[in-house]
From TrEMBL:
Residues 72-113 form the TNFR-Cys domain. It is found in: Secreted. SMART domains: TNFR (SM00208). InterPro entries: TNFR/NGFR_Cys_rich_reg, TNFRSF6B_N, TNFRSF_decoy_receptor. Gene3D superfamilies: Tumor Necrosis Factor Receptor, subunit A, domain 2 (2.10.50.10). The lineage of its organism: Eukaryota, Metazoa, Chordata, Craniata, Vertebrata. SUPFAM superfamilies: TNF receptor-like. It comes from Salvator merianae (Argentine black and white tegu). The keyword Repeat applies. TNFR-Cys repeats lie at residues 72-113. GO terms for biological process: apoptotic process. Disulfide bonds join 73-88, 95-113. GO terms for cellular component: extracellular region. This is TNF receptor superfamily member 6b.
Length: 305
């Protein structure tokens, strides 16, 4: 073949191209100029034509005497590979409302879309990223292809709401010159207090006594929710305080979640009605619910601060 080629290299274009490829294979020239078999309808001759590069299409196939004529694709059409197409391909991909365009339609590329920020792809649909449940934090934020990854909060950190954030470190009370009121866990922060009642052990703390010391009513509000460990009691207390029925979904919630929610509710109430009013109502509700042991525990706790 090689000798034939040398002997009469221009005898036939097809042979020449084929020979050229074999001869130049070693320096890779063939890779950059792919060819195709073409049967010339006029001369009935079998030819080897050059293909067109990406972004172009074959306007005219080669003949015995002329090379392939390639032409750039018109707007909204493309060819991605070396080709011998007589028409470019239509940019057929369209982004939907949950997607954004990451590749515009141009001569060499079809349009390409990916899920918008906040969404990822699940079998070709964009679905919102999951939030990490209470007590867990984001270890890897979601991206267009993958959902958020969550893990339980490690020692010394917490996440008190279903979120798209990593776990936060507990605050350090001693650094602020305060005492620990409620130690943090993976579901809630450490709560600090400046309350130091300094009463002799055994004396019943009443709300009017607590109010004499800075921050004690706030401390009661932070303390109580985390001392009640039965979901039923937490729900009943919350109902009694808010004087309304809770949505049935609350029956599926964990103790930790109910504690955090009761606490949030109390903080909200405190911000509108004042700490004194809320602490008083809270202690009254515990008495009515015959939860004396919680009140006793609280007295001991505050006297020990
Ligand atoms: C089309 O876009 C791609 C990347 O976005 C780029 O690499 C390529 O050169 C573009 N093609 C044309 C013909 O502009
Ligand atoms: C709080 O900070 C102090 C001083 O920086 C440190 O010794 C102590 O271990 C910290 N406590 C916690 C619970 O991180």
């Amino acid at each position: 073949m090689r000798s034939v080629c040398k002997w009469n290299p221009f005898r036939r274009l097809s042979k020449w191209v084929a020979c050229c490829c074999i001869v130049l294979w070693g320096i890779g020239a063939c890779n950059s100029q792919p060819t195709y078999q073409w049967h010339d309808p006029q001369t009935k001759e079998g030819l080897v034509c050059r293909q067109c590069e990406p972004g172009k299409f074959v306007e005219k196939h080669c003949t015995k005497h002329t090379p392939t004529v390639c032409k750039p694709c018109p707007g909204l059409y493309y060819t991605h590979f070396w080709n011998y197409l007589e028409k470019c391909l239509y940019c057929s991909v369209f982004c939907n409302s949950l997607e954004e365009e990451v590749q515009a339609c141009n001569g060499t590329h079809n349009r390409a879309c990916q899920c918008k920020p906040g969404y990822h792809s699940v079998s070709d649909f964009c679905v919102p990223h999951s939030r990490c449940p209470v007590g867990t934090g984001v270890t890897q934020p979601g991206n267009p292809l993958e959902d958020t990854k969550c893990a339980p909060c490690p020692e010394g950190t917490f996440s008190s709401s279903s979120s798209t954030n990593p776990c936060q470190p507990h605050q350090n009370c001693s650094e602020q010159g305060l005492a620990v009121n409620v130690p943090g866990d993976q579901f809630h922060d450490t709560f600090c207090t400046a309350c130091r009642p300094n009463k002799p052990v055994g004396i019943v703390i009443r709300t009017d006594e607590l109010s004499e010391t800075e921050g004690c009513e706030e401390a009661v509000i932070d303390y109580i929710p985390y001392q009640i460990k039965a979901p039923r009691r937490l729900r009943r207390l919350r109902q009694r305080l808010s004087k309304s029925l809770l949505p049935t979904a609350s029956h599926r919630k964990s103790v930790n979640q109910l504690q955090v929610e009761l606490h949030s509710y109390l903080i909200q109430e405190k911000n509108t009605k004042g700490a004194r009013d809320v602490a008083k109502k809270l202690m009254g509700a515990l008495r009515d619910m015959k939860l004396q042991h919680i009140l006793e525990k609280m007295q001991k706790h505050f006297l020990g601060l």
